[in-house]
Write a structure and sequence with these properties.
This protein is mainly alpha-helical and 465 residues long. Helix content is 77%, strand content 0%.
Length: 465
């Protein structure tokens, strides 16, 4: 499917009134994403190492539980129930974290959030797929993304004004818990389960659905397509694996997965270390909320137009530019740690840099999703996307683990340079993937459907025509 089929700008901001239920919970999750590292660093007086450990445990929980929630979503068509469990669980854990005074308990509660997160991702995407008619699904997903961005902006502004008024993290966590609970009640009372039942594999058939899923989490339903042989006559799992690897060498998909892996690795490494860096240079907690607000605001501006840009410029060109801008942004932040003049104006410099990174991620998400969708179209999309998300999950865990390892060196400069380096290495992979796709298309066009046999006596006549 061509890039022009992806819609990121909704014809109506709120395609259905019930989509508004996602605004409060997204406000809560965006606010909590900033509160958690600040709670570790400021309230509990812990280190960057502790932030990285918390992120590693969280990512492991997300990846492992995504398998379970994906299967449950396919077997139990209770979208409202799963969303209610997800949102109410967030509310309970946020409230509990407000009273936590030790790191081990905080880590355990954060793992609980990781275990619940994929439940909402699976259910929300399937809910839109099932409740919108096929002709209106693209608009439904685009509107859902707008509600997500709007909620995030509300949550970050709330955190900025709350902490800026010298209120406590504990009070803010209670407010965030209340917001999540509002969404849980609204879902239970205001959203009905669809009358038709689809599975997670159907999301892969729609580029907007795939984009929505991948923007939420690096984890898809992880299902590796190499099962034990069912009968003695069938090839072994190892034989099928080696056949698949040989076949994929001639396809662009391994290159896409490799480039995406490096992007996810660098993003997790950078993002986990970024808040500890902001704290280390003396930026206040309220201002850190505003830096994150700039990032999300840039996403809110760029994402709605990213579909049109992808169609006009082409996803291959756009993914390279977005990746390059992200790499330059990481290098700029690394420079902030080295230049004394920039250290004195770290707040303004990071406000601008993180906003640019937010705009770049919006372009990257749309263009890379379209390249991935193009690569799996007409094939065993569910299994291939499962492999892609398995690598995404590994990248998330390795990125967090690498942040933890590098925290012992105490060098934010090194972290940001490694993040930029991983992105720069991914650039030739995206280029190679585009060339592989072009060769595959050219081969398909040149391969004749039927071969016409031309008698020798007619061949010379055709040459002179």
């Amino acid at each position: 499917m061509d890039a022009h089929h992806v819609r990121t700008w909704p014809t109506r901001l709120v395609a259905r009134p019930w989509l508004l239920v996602f605004v409060p919970v997204n406000a809560a999750t965006a606010g909590f994403a900033v509160v958690l590292p600040l709670l570790i660093l400021v309230s509990l007086h812990a280190s960057w190492e502790s932030v990285a450990i918390a992120a590693t445990l969280f990512n492991v929980a997300v990846v492992m539980s995504s398998i379970v929630w994906g299967r449950l979503s396919d077997r139990i068509p209770k979208r409202r129930l799963f969303l209610t469990i997800n949102f109410a669980g967030f509310a309970l854990i946020y409230a509990l974290i407000g009273d936590v005074a030790s790191l081990p308990i905080l880590f355990a509660l954060y793992v609980g959030i990781g275990l619940l997160t994929p439940a909402g991702v699976s259910a929300s995407n399937l809910l839109i797929l099932e409740k919108f008619a096929p002709s209106d699904r693209a608009n439904g997903y685009a509107s859902f993304q707008e509600m997500t961005i709007l909620g995030s902006l509300v949550g970050l502004l709330l955190g900025y004004f709350w902490i800026g008024s010298n209120a406590s993290f504990q009070g803010l966590l209670y407010v965030l818990a209340a917001l999540a609970l509002v969404s849980a009640v609204a879902v239970w009372l205001g959203v009905k389960d669809p009358t038709r039942w689809l599975s997670t594999i159907h999301v892969a058939a729609h580029p907007e659905g795939l984009l929505s899923r991948l923007r939420h989490s690096s984890s898809w339903r992880i299902s590796i397509p190499f099962f034990p042989a069912r009968t003695p006559e069938e090839p072994t799992a190892w034989t099928r694996l080696t056949r698949w690897v040989r076949a994929e060498v001639r396809h662009e998909l391994p290159l896409i997965i490799g480039a995406s892996f490096l992007f996810n690795l660098s993003a997790n490494l950078f993002n986990i270390s970024y808040t500890p860096y902001l704290v280390s240079v003396g930026i206040g907690s309220a201002s850190i909320f505003l830096v994150n607000f700039a990032n999300n605001a840039a996403q809110g501006i760029v994402f709605p137009v990213s579909g049109g840009l992808t169609a006009r410029r082409g996803p291959d060109r756009l993914v390279l530019r977005a990746t390059y801008v992200r790499a330059l942004g990481y290098l700029a932040v690394a420079m902030f740690t080295l230049v004394p003049l920039l250290k004195g104006s770290a707040y303004g410099a990071n406000l601008v840099a993180f906003a640019i990174l937010g705009g770049a991620i919006a372009l990257y998400a749309t263009s890379s999703t379209m390249i991935l969708f193009r690569g799996v179209e007409g094939r065993a999309a569910g299994n291939l996307l499962g492999i892609n998300s398995a690598f995404g999950g590994v990248a998330a865990i390795l990125g967090a683990g690498l942040s933890w390892a590098l925290s012992f060196l105490g060098s934010f400069t090194l972290v940001f340079l490694v993040s930029a380096g991983a992105l720069l290495v991914s650039l030739p992979l995206w280029t190679a993937a585009h060339l592989a796709y072009a060769r595959r298309n050219a081969a398909a066009v040149e391969t004749p459907v039927a071969t016409e046999t031309i008698p020798p006596e007619k061949h010379a006549a055709r040459q002179t025509d």
